[in-house]
């Protein structure tokens, strides 16, 4: 069966995607568990920040590799050949995800470094403050067969004062305003997802997020006139996503408001 567009599915993404037809979605932008949580998070005296301690984010290394293989197999099956696949991660999981992508011989188009100028300070004071995350941009085809993936080069330049866009993106972590409808421990900023959707998808394309959390992918896709399908197994996060979809308007960034390009 085909997934219903512009709907949030609640449940395990592997089981849900298994019910869908091959090649039924144009692209996937997703942010899987990072496997970085501790059973008991670290806190410190100077703020109420505690490091991640989410049950859904705790795996053994072998379980994490198996889980990644399973969901990525389904994503590659349901996304059309040469569709774009963007996967987020931190140093905790991105090498494991890259390992599975290479195992599958998928073409990696870019690895993007997301620099967070407002990252949380390091609580232990025994190491540098981690202030980057990574995004693997792959094409849903093997290295030998990959061709014709969507890249809106002119838009990427307009977003970057008419210069070629580089793969290091400085974008702050979401403000309180973006978290008005509830908190998610790893919510992604609207600006970050908007940039991906503008450079790597076209109007009316369909975008899957199989770990959608607070629904950032769908909120931005809806604002930019793309179709979306989201899956998350946590009802609380899906409630936040539904509220954001009803209330948050995402518009074009200033640099594109007057453009004559097809967006
Ligand atoms: C890193 S978060 C995604 C955050 C999201 N990008 C946002 O902006 O809010 C990963 C999400 O995956 C969900 N999740 C974990 N395991 C899952 C599974 N097997 N099936 C569906 N969702 C799952 C968690 O509930 C969590 O919301």
Could you explain the architecture of this structure?
- The mean pLDDT is 94.
- Helices cover 27% and strands 18% of the residues.
- The chain starts with 6 loop residues before the first strand and ends in a 16-residue tail after the last helix.
- The chain has one domain: 3-Layer(aba) Sandwich (Rossmann fold), CATH 3.40.50.150.
- Helix 2 crosses helix 3 (94-103).
- It has seven helices and eight strands; from the N terminus they run βαβαβαββαβαβαβα.
- It is an alpha/beta fold and 263 residues long.
- The protein binds S-adenosylmethionine.
- Residues 12-13, 31, 33, 56, 184, 186-188, 211-214, 216, 231-234, 237 line the site of S-adenosylmethionine (SAM).
- S-adenosylmethionine binds at residues 12-13, 31, 33, 56, 184, 186-188, 211-214, 216, 231-234, 237.
In the CATH hierarchy, what is the architecture at level 2?
A: 3-Layer(aba) Sandwich
As a percent range, the share of helical residues equals 25-40%
Number of helices: 7
Walk across the major sheet and give the strand order: 1-8-7-2-3-5-4-6
Strand proportion, as a percent range, falls in 15-25%
CATH-defined fold name: Rossmann fold
Can you tell me the overall shape? Answer: globular
Bound molecules: S-adenosylmethionine
* CATH first level: Alpha Beta
- Low-confidence segments, ≥5 residues, pLDDT <50? none
- E-strand count: 8
**Biggest sheet overview:** 8 strands, mixed
Domain tally:
1
Chain-wise SSE layout:
Layout: E1 7-10, H1 13-18, E2 27-30, H2 61-78, E3 84-89, H3 94-103, E4 106-115, E5 132-142, H4 153-158, E6 168-170, H5 190-200, E7 206-209, H6 216-223, E8 227-232, H7 235-247
Parallel strand pairs: 1-8, 2-3, 2-7, 4-6, 7-8
Antiparallel strand pairs: 3-5, 4-5
The structure holds S-adenosylmethionine.
């Amino acid at each position: 069966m085909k997934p219903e567009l512009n709907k949030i599915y609640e449940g395990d993404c592997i089981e849900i995607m298994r019910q869908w037809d091959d090649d039924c979605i144009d692209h996937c932008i997703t942010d899987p568990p990072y496997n970085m949580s501790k059973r008991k998070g670290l806190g410190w005296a100077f703020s109420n920040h505690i490091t991640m301690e989410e049950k859904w984010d705790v795996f053994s290394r072998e379980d994490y590799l198996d889980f990644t293989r399973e969901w990525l197999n389904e994503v590659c099956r349901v996304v059309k050949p040469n569709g774009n696949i963007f996967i987020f991660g931190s140093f905790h999981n991105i090498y494991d995800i890259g390992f599975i992508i290479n195992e599958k011989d998928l073409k990696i188009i870019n690895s993007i470094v997301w620099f967070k100028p407002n990252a949380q300070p390091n609580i232990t004071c025994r190491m540098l403050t981690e202030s980057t995350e990574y995004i693997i941009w792959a094409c849903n085809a093997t290295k030998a067969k990959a061709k014709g993936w969507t890249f809106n080069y002119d838009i990427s330049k307009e977003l970057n004062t008419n210069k070629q866009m580089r793969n290091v993106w400085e974008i702050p972590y979401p403000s309180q305003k973006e978290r008005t409808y509830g908190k998610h421990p790893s919510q992604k900023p609207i600006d970050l997802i908007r940039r991906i959707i503008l450079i790597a998808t076209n109007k009316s394309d369909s975008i899957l997020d199989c770990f959608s959390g607070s629904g950032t992918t769908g909120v931005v896709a809806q604002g930019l006139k793309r179709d979306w399908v989201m899956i998350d197994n946590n009802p609380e996060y899906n409630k936040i996503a539904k509220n954001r979809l009803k209330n948050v308007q995402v518009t074009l960034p200033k640099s594109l408001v007057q453009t004559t390009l097809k967006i």
